[in-house]
């Protein structure tokens, strides 16, 4: 785009040096283009080809057409992994917003040490998921973890947490929320500060109470931020991997095997790279549809106003 | 993650491109280069580097280049996958034995059968189970780099405190269960024993000895159907289920990284473990003993998980240099420095006759017991392409039983049905 615009202008003014603006333009976009083509588009195409093959990246392998995709439909383990991912997303996405918004509202008020609180809440987001996972492993250990010691001290039975098949996924949701609630907080904070003061004041002058102001003015004004967060957090949830890898490795009893972890296992532990690539592509399409759908829904809702 | 996967996938062809541009490397000033990905760090890596330096000095035509490849051998095959796709694999790499069938299907893996047939190589001097594990359909995919076996290590202090006699080499699995139950003390957080429930091969290989001890097998002799759901195997799994669920004497280790540290700190009385634990045991000053695994009817078979040095084809000149180097590396004198120096059992029987071994056995309690236990390692896991898939199903089955979700019968029958499906696919 930039290159085109330059060309147009250059053509009108000095037709003879047409090549130069071209080169300048490409000079600017070239490195980035190379990176995108090399690190995104090329591997994406390569993975697409891989997903049509029965291949382990070691032996020659063979072209199998859509067989990998047909196998996807009849794979009970993948179905289970999909359910786990869905359950995780359904809890994680609204959870992060519901927790993030009140904290953002609180931090938006003139309280003492506000900057300090803000930093504290954002630090876990900056910490890598690997560190979060290892930390969670330690403090949530059923026998020797500090959380269970505290529970025992309070007279509550010790819990299995990440080692109990019925609790592990829920525990992961809690750990992820702890690790990532910083993002909704920061986004909501920014959005809150963008709300025109006149609107809030006008509402108050009209006799609205604090709750009414929040519902009728603040919340609608936060809508774009919410849409962004829903899409962002959904993509994040669908691609959950690192936390699982560093905590449960999909266990106990595969109860935390989510889609991306499943495809990793297929591709790199069970040597079905072609099948793993097919799972990755299916997930990509689902992610695209979900984000597109969310965007479309949000736009449609905006139209009347 | 998709982004990360994409980057991994991007590096693969990018490497290919780089090598295509770079042309054939490896002839370095007339010297034949042998790139050696050994996966060892710290002291172990230093031993191998010293050995390479020594070899280079005495063999002027060759340049052995020791590189770590990856600091975690779990990822070695992935690394080599990428390097192979790029057309520039290492000449020699450290590979887990469980990858052998996959490696056998890899065209770039050099068949070493002609090398080991040479009487000067001394193949018969290597442990039988290790030789069997390195051979897939007549193809020798590597030579042993590390051998081990599972034995029973026990904490003497915990046995003394409970006023119980130490385990013996004649123990039955029922003796084992009784002792585990008596050692368990919830008040002090002490477990009788532990089991790894990662659901992967680490879970599965601990179970096979019990099947073999009763004359059972993993697959039927035609290799087309699963044989591990036999009544005897079910009874063995049920013993573990009863220990874990009813007696609560088993610490179930979710990620396979905690059970040994817990043993070192006196929280677990007995562990199924291998000689690799001896160094840490010495470091932690644990007062321990080693006996063979408990048995059935006097049969105390164990399992050996030998790892291999695998040669990749980078042209016949480099392959030959790599073979020559491995022949030298696995001679008893070098074996003593590498295996014993890194706290492992010798990969050759002749090494155990050297004075270096005597010193090693004095330094590490239980070395003799583990060495003697090699004689109990007589069977290997099937070297078939479907084994990793079958292992995953069996691992899930064992986990379900130990966590009390299914009976041993349900779990193993279900896994056998899945295994039959995998085997039918071929």
TrEMBL record, chain A:
Family annotation (CDD domains): TM_PBP2
Task: Spell out where the chain crosses the membrane.
Answer: 21-49, 86-107, 119-140, 168-192, 213-235, 278-298
Looking at the keywords, is Membrane present? yes
What Pfam families does the annotation carry? Answer: BPD_transp_1
What UniProt keywords apply to this chain's record, in alphabetical order? Cell membrane, Membrane, Transmembrane, Transmembrane helix, Transport
Q: Where in the cell is it found?
A: Cell membrane
What's the protein name?
A: ABC transporter permease
- Higher taxonomy: Bacteria, Bacillati, Actinomycetota, Actinomycetes, Streptosporangiales
From TrEMBL, chain B:
Cross-referenced CDD domains, in alphabetical order?
A: PBP2_UgpB
Which Pfam family, giving just one, matches this sequence?
SBP_bac_1
Q: Which domain of life is it from?
A: Bacteria
UniProtKB keywords: Signal
In the record, which residues are listed under signal peptide? 1-20
Q: Which SUPFAM superfamilies match?
A: Periplasmic binding protein-like II (SSF53850)
List the protein's name: ABC transporter substrate-binding protein
Taxonomic source organism: Planotetraspora mira
Organism placement in taxonomy = Bacteria, Bacillati, Actinomycetota, Actinomycetes, Streptosporangiales
């Amino acid at each position: 785009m930039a290159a085109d615009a330059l060309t147009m202008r250059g053509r009108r003014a000095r037709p003879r040096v047409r090549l130069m603006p071209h080169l300048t333009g490409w000079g600017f976009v070239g490195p980035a283009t190379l990176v995108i083509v090399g690190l995104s588009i090329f591997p994406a195409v390569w993975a697409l080809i891989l997903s049509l093959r029965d291949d382990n990246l070691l032996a020659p392998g063979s072209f199998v057409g859509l067989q990998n995709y047909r196998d996807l439909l009849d794979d009970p383990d993948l179905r289970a992994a999909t359910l786990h991912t869905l359950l995780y997303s359904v809890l994680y996405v609204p959870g992060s917003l519901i927790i993030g918004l009140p904290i953002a509202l609180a931090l938006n008020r003139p309280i003492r040490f506000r900057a300090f609180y803000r930093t504290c809440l954002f630090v876990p987001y900056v910490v890598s998921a690997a560190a979060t996972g290892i930390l969670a492993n330690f403090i949530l250990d059923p026998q020797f973890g500090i959380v269970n010691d505290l529970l025992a001290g309070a007279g509550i039975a010790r819990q299995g947490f990440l080692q109990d098949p019925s609790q592990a996924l829920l525990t992961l949701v809690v750990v992820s929320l702890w690790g990532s609630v910083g993002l909704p907080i920061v986004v909501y904070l920014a959005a809150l500060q963008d709300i025109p003061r006149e609107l809030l004041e006008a509402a108050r002058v009209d006799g609205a109470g604090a709750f009414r102001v929040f519902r009728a003015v603040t919340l609608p004004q936060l809508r774009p931020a919410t849409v962004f967060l829903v899409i962002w957090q959904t993509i994040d949830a669908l691609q959950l991997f690192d936390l699982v890898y560093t905590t449960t490795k999909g266990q106990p009893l595969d109860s935390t095997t989510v889609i991306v972890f499943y495809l990793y296992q297929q591709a790199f532990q069970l040597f079905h790279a072609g099948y793993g690539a097919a799972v990755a592509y299916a997930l990509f399409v689902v992610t695209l549809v979900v984000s597109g759908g969310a965007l479309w829904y949000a736009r449609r809702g905006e139209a009347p106003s | 993650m998709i982004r990360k996967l994409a980057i991994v996938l991007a590096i693969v062809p990018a490497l290919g491109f780089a090598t295509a541009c770079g042309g054939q490397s490896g002839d370095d000033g007339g010297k034949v280069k042998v790139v050696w990905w050994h996966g060892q760090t710290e002291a172990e890596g230093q031993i191998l580097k010293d050995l390479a330096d020594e070899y280079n000095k005495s063999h002027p035509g060759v340049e052995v280049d020791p590189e770590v490849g990856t600091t975690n051998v779990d990822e070695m095959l992935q690394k080599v996958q990428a390097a192979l796709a790029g057309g520039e694999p290492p000449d020699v790499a450290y590979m887990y034995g469980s990858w052998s069938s996959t490696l056998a299907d890899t065209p770039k893996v050099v068949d070493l059968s002609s090398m080991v047939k040479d009487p000067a190589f001394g193949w018969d001097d290597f442990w039988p189970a290790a030789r069997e594990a390195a051979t897939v359909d007549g193809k020798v995919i590597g030579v042993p780099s590390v051998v081990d076996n599972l034995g029973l290590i026990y904490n003497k202090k915990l046995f003394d405190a409970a006023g119980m006699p130490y385990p013996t080499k004649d123990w039955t699995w029922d003796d084992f269960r009784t002792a585990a139950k008596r050692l368990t003390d919830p008040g002090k957080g002490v477990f009788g024993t532990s089991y790894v429930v990662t659901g992967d091969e680490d879970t599965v290989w601990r179970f096979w000895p019990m099947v073999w001890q009763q004359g059972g097998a993993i697959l039927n002799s035609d290799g087309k159907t699963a044989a591990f759901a036999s009544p005897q195997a079910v009874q063995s799994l049920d013993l573990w289920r009863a220990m874990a669920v009813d007696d609560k004497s088993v610490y179930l280790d979710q990620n396979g990284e905690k059970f040994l540290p817990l043993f070192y700190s006196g929280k677990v009385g007995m562990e199924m473990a291998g000689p690799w634990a001896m160094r840490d045991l010495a470091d932690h000053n644990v007062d321990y003993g080693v006996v063979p695994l408990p048995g059935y009817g006097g049969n105390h078979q164990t399992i050996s998980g030998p790892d291999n040095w695998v040669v990749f084809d980078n042209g016949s000149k480099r392959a030959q240099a790599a073979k020559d180097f491995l022949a030298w590396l696995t001679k008893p004198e070098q074996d003593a420095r590498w295996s014993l120096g890194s706290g492992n059992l010798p990969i050759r029987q002749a090494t155990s006759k050297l004075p270096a071994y005597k010193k090693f056995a004095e330094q590490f309690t239980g070395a003799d017991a583990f060495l003697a236990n090699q004689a109990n390692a007589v069977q290997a896991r099937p070297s078939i392409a479907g084994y990793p898939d079958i292992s995953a199903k069996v691992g899930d089955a064992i986990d379900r039983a130990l966590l009390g979700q299914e009976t041993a019968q349900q779990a193993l029958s279900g896994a056998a049905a899945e295994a039959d499906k995998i085997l039918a696919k071929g």
